[in-house]
Task: structure prediction
Amino acid sequence: MLQETLKLALKAIRRNPLRSFLTVLGIVIGVAAVIAMVTIGNGTTAKVTSEISKLGSNMLFMRPGQFGPGRASTTAKSFNARDVAAIETQIAGLRAIAPISQASETVIFGGESRSSSVVGTTGDYLTALDWGLASGRSFLESEERGRAACIIGETVRSKLFGSTDAIGQSLRVGKISCSIIGVLEKKGQSGMGTDQDDIVLMPLRTFQRRIAGNTDIGTIVLSAQNGVSTSKIQANVQRLMRERRNIANGKEDDFSVNDMTQMLQAMTTTTTLLTGLLGAVAAVSLLVGGIGIMNIMLVSVTERTREIGIRLAIGALESQVLLQFLVEAVVLSVFGGIVGVLLGLGLAYSAVSYLNVPFVTSLPIIALAFGFSAMIGMVFGYFPARRAASLDPIEALRRE
Amino acid sequence: MTAPQPLIEFRAVTKVYGMGEALVHALAGVDLSIAESEFVAIMGPSGSGKSTAMNIIGCLDTPSSGEYLFQGIPTSHLSRAQHTLLRRHMIGFVFQGFNLLPRTSAVENVELPLVYRGMAAGERRDRALKALARVGLEGRASHTPSELSGGQQQRVAIARAIVTDPAVLLADEPTGNLDTKASQEIMDLVTALNRDQRITVIMVTHEPDIAAYASRVIRFVDGKVESDVARTEVA
Ligand SMILES: Nc1ncnc2c1ncn2[C@@H]1O[C@H](COP(=O)(O)OP(=O)(O)OP(=O)(O)O)[C@@H](O)[C@H]1O
Ligand SMILES: [Mg+2]
Result:
């Protein structure tokens, strides 16, 4: 009898292809949306977290202004070379101190050109960020006094030089031309999705004089020696800089010094927010899918009630009718659920490869999305049937 | 001569719909007894309770009061499932409104009672096609109800009722949508079933011509039996 019931259920599904299709579609949309969104959100979080933790826990970032919600940072004045010198001489326990100034410039070699991030800094930059050279060398002291030497990132190398050796060639950066002394190791995309290898490093002095036209320093990266606590350095630097920037007691800093955990916190707050937002969008899709299913089921309830009446009248037991409707609901829900899971994972997969974030699926979320949609399918497919099947056959037949 | 145990017996059966002002006595105390192998026609004006009585006989509905006995067994003592089994194994019902499954082919509609009897697919199909042939619908087996005329749908409904070889055939205006020729063919079929297979036939009709096929005519008026005459006496 079970086999017959299955056949009856499949017949009923085929007999009304549009209704079946729309029911499955509702489930597919809900399940796929939830899975895609949550997977993308999780991947982004994982990526950001791993990127930041890769930077190392002994780093401090110092920037003018205060960051965070509701705070403008534009009015705070930049740092300068004397600040760097003061930190270097007065703060103990530092392994590296790298001043950074940055601009976007057109770089040209041969017939090729592109817009890249040009960073004025010192050799300490590579030490502080633990960034090695693929070939060539770092800046010499003589070059740091203002020579036009530069180190290029992998993207710049491959896009402009292709298979020719870049070392020793002359690269045009904005209005100046500098000779390439080194090529950086490939680093890949940052947590925010920017290409970290699309970069040209040059000595800070050279950058200030010939590109920026001022003596400002945007960011200072500090790296603590092994075993030295970053929070102690952070406090010392903060005290020193307050003094240097003449900040009165009780007034807020007009600069910020953050270590990695604080950066991580700020970033994960953002990505958690993102995941939450994506989750909300997905929940709405799930709900919309659910309401779709509900609609279809309720619209067809009269027809199905009559059908139940007919079946009861010609000798079907209540339990047989219910089993048929249950099988129908299960088949549609499970089919929709499976298609939804596959579609969701597929969408998520193409999205994460496009965004270049890891593919992090969450089984509980898949189960939850699947369960919720299946439940809607069951509730709205099965429960009206249960009511109809408990009527006297003639009652069910009379429904209009 | 003592009458044999009646197959169908109504004892003061009533059926009440609605309440208060809108109270309707569809059946207002009906006593009735029909023996096995009888061919009974039920007549009467519209709204006199004919369909209501048929539904109770067919175990599709239950009386408000009184007792309906099938083969001497009071049906009020039977469970829902027992009612269903009675319908499944004893009764073929032709509804006034056909009640075919929509978007389902004629042959699948006719097969359905056999599905619930647990018959194998091949045999089921054979019998369904034969039943369709008997009502003159050989060529229409794969048509769905919406592709059939009213008269053709009615004949599918008749085929569905007789496909199980029921002990009792209940037909609520089985020729209501048929022309004279088709009506005659159907009535010849019903008469043959009654005569050759000893199937008890109870049939509602408005047409004296059709009632004339029956051996007994019961007339309902206002939910009561007004007259009950054997045809030999009528003639
Ligand atoms: N579900 C119901 N609710 C309320 N009243 C009903 C219901 N079903 C039938 N009736 C009433 O019961 C009475 C008998 O109805 P029934 O259908 O038995 O008549 P009938 O003799 O079959 O009529 P017809 O020849 O038109 O088919 C009618 O007055 C009808 O209005
Ligand atoms: Mg009627």
In short: Residues A 398; B 17-18, 24, 26, 44, 46-52, 96 surround adenosine-5'-triphosphate (ligand 1) (CB under 6 Å). The first helix of chain A runs from residue 2 to 15. Chain A is about 55% helix and 15% strand.
